[in-house]
Amino acid sequence: MKVVIIGGGVAGLAMGIMLHQRNYDIVICERANGLPNKGHAFLMHSDGVESLNELKKGVDISLKAQMIDEYMMHTPEGERVKHLKLDGWYCVKRKSLIGFLYALMPAEKIKDQRNFSHFVYEEGKVIAAVFLNGDVEYGDVFIGADGGNSLVREYLFGRTKYTPVEVKEIIGVCSRKATAKKPKGTFKKFQDKESGIAFGLIPTSATDFVWFMQFDPTIADLTNSTAEETYSFCYNLLRDYPQAVKDTLQATDFNNTYTWHTRDFDLLPSFHKGNVVLIGDAAHLALPFTSAGTTNAIVDAQTLVKCMDETIDVETAFTKYYDLRKKDVSEHVQLGRQLKKIFLKPETQTEEIPVPLINMGEKEQTEEKKLINILYFTDPICSTCWIIQPMLRRMQLEYGKFVNIEYRMGGLLPSWEGYSSSKIKSPDDAAKHWEEVCEQSEMPLDGDIWKEDPLSSSYPPSIAFKAAQLQDQEKAIQFLRRMKEMVFVEKKNIIRWEFLEKAALYSGLDVARLKRDIEGQAKEKFSEDISMARELGVTGFPTLFFTNCSEKKFVIKGFQQYEKFEEVLKDLIPTITKERIDTNPYSLFQEFPSMTIKEFSFLANVSKEEATTILENLYTKNLVQKYQGKNGAIYQSNLIKCDC
Fold first, then answer.
1. Residue 380: which residues within 8 A CB-CB, separation 6 or more?
2. Which of 169, 81, 118, 18 is nearest to 513 (CA)?
């Protein structure tokens, strides 16, 4: 079977390589003369990067990509609107990517200077593609990969009904050396709160940036496009933006910028007609706010190849490909339009501005009702809450499909003034108590923080946790865990914003929103928890209220062995069963990104000595990071799969 691919961009090249590696007879027809170099750079999710690296098949070449691990949005006046960690995003120079793909494709398979004209049909089936230079390429299957302005799409389905151009984007590049220093992997954006103007800056390498200016052309428009005029236009629109923005413009060669008239179109009723099929922007075009175009092109190619491998009849394969892709690409189109609407009328946005990135592998989350609910009253500095972490984690693995844990803050330490418990009346007492708990439990606690930098209250980190819950329940639990690691093992005073900020970034929270909520509605949410604890008679921590659907209730207070937790669960559901724990270290670190030796030992059901050996081996291989405290260590996953 001969496959003719029309378009030698990312989609066409990726498709060609995948088919060539499966021994299809292919030819790629590209309208440019030589390696196409239009475009500067783009953001790509790790799904796309990993898929591209899988194409190498032993070839000694690597795709150069700059990891982007933080996103920051500010107003032009410098107010921080968003700040969060990104997982799995890269910035890739288009020239680097095209060069990478060209290196994986035999040169004789790529035909230059072929601008599509029309198809030749025989008995209702396309048998050849004709190009404006007079070339004719015969084949059995034809793939249109000729971009957003696809002539193949127009030939198949008629004139495309694009949405109006309501946002334009000017894109340029500059050297890091010529601008103020920025964090290495930070996507930084300035967005006006009252009008459709934004400026973004993304590192493409250790030395270079790509920048973009998005603007509403009804505010101001660029009618001429000489380098000097484009510079003046950008500078005038951004004259009130921070100096770093103006420095970037001054460091840019505007002979190499280009203006993008952004538009999209509705989902097509099909991606194929007969033996001709579309992929990438030719098949579906979303607005650039989503940063999904390049990754979508690669996913299209993967999906189509898989369908062709599994189905003898190509039209059946094309239909299956459409069915597999239509939901995602339709959602991307709609998200792009939503983000455009917010961009053009930011003053009407009452909710948080979405991050303009789509995680391609993200699955829809559904809330599942569990048979047992646990109302858990805890505190970030409660030592007993820390040492029951192994039990809670094991319960999550073995009984998670039955159990939901609802976290509430109890307010252990309002202040030291007038504070008194049976054993602890001062920071010195707390230091001694933590050392005793450490020795008895084998969980690491370092009481020296109470001598070196004592916390004056547990209320600030408790309020921070309530602020985190307003964003995301799972990330809030990870945030609470990270705060506990900081205070118990690393001796960090988690009242201080610098440590709360680091814990929030680590947990994937929006730090800017967290700070706003800490100063706002999180305080009210914390007060509600305190009131509930008082009403339920909570006098110590941890306190866990177990209830089932029939409102049968059990209470566990303080430290208990794991068998006690199981006993309560079985009393609530006599037929309850537990899942077998996958004790492979990779599996455990996928569930819990950080663990102590005690936790790993308890979950993997091995001795403390065996757990230490396994974790140290992972550390030696750089598969986990390690923080060594005075009384024990925390091991954090590097998220690298291993054969352990």
1. 458, 461, 462, 465, 480, 483, 484, 487, 494
2. 81
With helix as H, strand as E and coil as C, how does 19-53 read?
HHHCCCEEEEECCCCCCCCCCCEEEEEHHHHHHHH
Q: For residue 371, which of 196, 579, 552 has the smallest C-alpha distance? A: 552
For residues 429-433, average pLDDT: 96
Query: Which alpha helices (DSSP H) does 227-266 contain, by range?
Result: 227-237, 243-250
**Residues counted in the chain:** 644
CATH topology assigned to domain 585-637: Arc Repressor Mutant, subunit A (1.10.10)
What is each CA distance from 507 to 386, 465, 495, 593, 608, in whole angstroms? 18, 12, 17, 10, 28
Q: Write out the two tokens for 45.
A: 């999710």
Instruction: Tell me the one-letter amino acid at 416.
Output: W
Asked whether the beta carbons of 92 and 44 are under 8 A apart, the reply is yes
Q: Looking at the domain that runs over 2-63+93-163+264-348, which CATH code has it been given? A: 3.50.50.60
Cα distances (Å, whole numbers) of residue 472 to 325, 460, 469 = 28, 19, 5
- How many other β-carbons are positioned within 10 Å of the β-carbon of residue 280? 29
Q: In the numeric block, which tokens belong to residue 101?
A: 């793909």
Residue 85: other Cβ atoms inside 10 A:
16
User: May I ask the CATH class of domain 167-262?
Assistant: alpha beta
Q: What are phi and psi of 369, to 5 degrees?
A: -80, 125
Question: CATH topology for 372-572?
Answer: Glutaredoxin (3.40.30)
Query: 357-404, pLDDT tens digit by residue?
Result: 765 444 444 456 789 999 999 999 999 999 999 999 999 999 999 999
The answer to whether 254 touches 158, Cβ cutoff 8 Å, is no
**Cα–Cα distance between 441 and 445 in angstroms, integer?**
10
Question: Is residue 20 a contact partner of residue 14, using CB atoms and an 8 Å limit?
Answer: no
Q: How far apart are CA 73 and CA 51, in angstroms?
A: 30
Most confident of 92-106, 148-162, 169-183, 340-354: 148-162
Whether 2-63+93-163+264-348 and 167-262 share one fold: the answer is no
Domain ranges of the chain: 2-63+93-163+264-348, 167-262, 372-572, 585-637
Residue type, 618: L
Over residues 211-237, the pLDDT tens digits come to 999 999 999 999 877 999 999 999 999
